[in-house]
Amino acid sequence: MSVPVPVSVSTAVSDSPPGVGVWLIGARGSVATTVVAGRAALTAGLHTPTGMVTETALFTGTGLPPLSSLVFGGHDTVDCPLPKRAEALAAGGVLPHGLPTAVAAELAAAEREIRPGGPLPGDTRGPDELISAFATDIDDFVRRRGLTRAVVVNVASTEPAPTGSRPERLAPPGAALPPSSLYAAAALRAGCPYVNFTPSTGLHHPALAALAATSGLPYAGRDGKTGQTLLRSVLGPMFAQRALTVRAWSGTNLLGGGDGAALADPAAAAAKNAGKERVLTDSLGATPEGETHIDDVPALGDWKTAWDHIAFDGFLGTRMVLQTTWQGCDSTLAAPLVLDLARLLARAHEASLSGPLPDLAFYFKDPLGDAPTALGEQYAKLAGFAERLRGHGVGGPEPREETR
Question: Which SUPFAM superfamilies does this UniProt record tie to the protein (predicted)?
Fold first, then answer.
């Protein structure tokens, strides 16, 4: 439960000793703003860490960096400063009333660490120039702030899908790198673990396969599982385990805000829906009839309603229906997961783990590597990962001084 938020209290940035950087791609968006404001509220004792699995007993003694050690920066192509973005989120009910004022110092500190992203219209730089520029920004952040390491997390708007639902299989190796892949390459070039919290291509581009394989860095993704798909990853296995035949599974998402505007693009919506549908196919053993629709409703702001209609057969062919409605705020559902993942990847890097981390499938619609689909099995894998971290001492590799 949360406590009232005073409007004149602010925790000085210096009270949280620098230690681990969290470099956010899409650093002025709703999710990133909620991450920064939320972490500040937790370390100031204004709220409890509801929704953060890393703050439960499961991760006691695993050596995760404390929340107070996280330092934020990032890239973005928009210019609305974080304090103003936080005020807009509070006005829309996403952040508690008064919180932007209470954590103004932390928001301002993160805003000072945001650098221009790209490529912007008219930008003549080639892919390697952009990657080099982004990596230099990250290196500079780590050096200036005296950080032990930094984790790069993509929380930017969804990109249009390349061709089909599996860009890592269908995009030709010579295809131009989309922005998410430029940032992913920059993260590895800067020697940073990487998390793709979006359905965008990121490290999935075949041109980055060799770089990812030889980087010696841990990485995780893809597409954070916050609402409708979270529920599907529970219900799908339930039908399969009870031997109930699902005939059709249809869904609708109504949402506004920046995510709604981005997903109004049919190609971006296709990228988003691919992960939602894959969960059903993997858990049911076949793809049921029906589609998932995403509708942009600007009046809803950052709030989303997700509705599912499931037609299934029971004993003696009796036809039945289950309907579910999920209403929530994407930013406040996503923010605790982003904080979890930043801490987990930082600790994995410290423990000298590398490559894809399928044990973190619990957090994603389309997880990397050989990972189970059912949420219960994914949680068991996460528990095993926590035990694995306990087996590693603290004090792994420091960031490389020169990574180019």
Answer: Glyceraldehyde-3-phosphate dehydrogenase-like, C-terminal domain, NAD(P)-binding Rossmann-fold domains
